[in-house]
Amino acid sequence: MATSREDSSQFDISLEEKDKLVAEVIRYVLFKTHQNSGCPIKRDELTQIITKNYRQRALPAFVIHAAREKLSTIFGYEMKELQRSRPSSANQGRASQQSIADAKSYVIISQLPADVYRKYVEDVNTAHLTGFTFVIVSIVYLAGGKIAEDGLWHHMRRMGLYENEANHPVLGNIKQALEALVQQRYLQKDKVSGHEGNTLFYELAERALDETINKKIKEYISQIVKNDGASSTDVE
């Protein structure tokens, strides 16, 4: 307690004021995560909450750090920082064009064991969206991390998912379901100019490139290959 009081005093705010700011940040993170279906929350949004009534330059970093600790110890969530990745074709862009792409954001990830999460936390009504995310990210991963829009829709049509379908019985509007993966930063779009005009590519974004997700994708693909191999053996 003394340490917390001393830490907050360096910003000339009381412990009560610091705790209130931390609570506001946590409330905002939990609400926005639920409201926006897990889309990353920009650091600037959290900074604006903190600097609305305070002007100390280092205060946002201090409050966000405290909020991350409390989310972990009390709520069981890791508030993971993401560094926004840039489309591969933007690597040749000017530095002035990179400021938006380099913006930091956060997502919250449960720290509960998988079996406990499935039993007590996971919403069965959204499990199909998790499956859709995993399959689409795996397709892009197997394509080398980047795939042309036509190529992606080719694979999706083979699964019965069509770009003009607005009332899929499980996913609803298919185009919107795919766009949600862009908003959630599993994928990013990259328009590339060529001799035949512009081609739109889908590329893995920072959440799909995360080590934990990447590991699960590799395990998933290995399991499919293993099962296919077993099926072939059975047929023979």
Detailed description of the structure:
The chain is α+β, with helices and mostly antiparallel strands and 236 residues long. 54% of the residues lie in helices and 15% in strands. The chain is built from 10 helices and 6 strands, in the order ααβααββααβααββαα. The strands form 2 sheets. Strands 1-3-2 form a 3-stranded antiparallel β-sheet. A 3-stranded antiparallel β-sheet has the order 4-6-5.
State the total count of DSSP E strands: 6
Which H/E pattern describes the elements?
A: HHEHHEEHHEHHEEHH
> Which oligomeric state applies?
single chain
Mean pLDDT: 84
Comma- or semicolon-separated keywords:
3-stranded antiparallel β-sheet, alpha+beta, globular, 236 residues
Summed up:
The protein has 236 residues and is α+β, with helices and mostly antiparallel strands. Helices cover 54% and strands 15% of the residues.
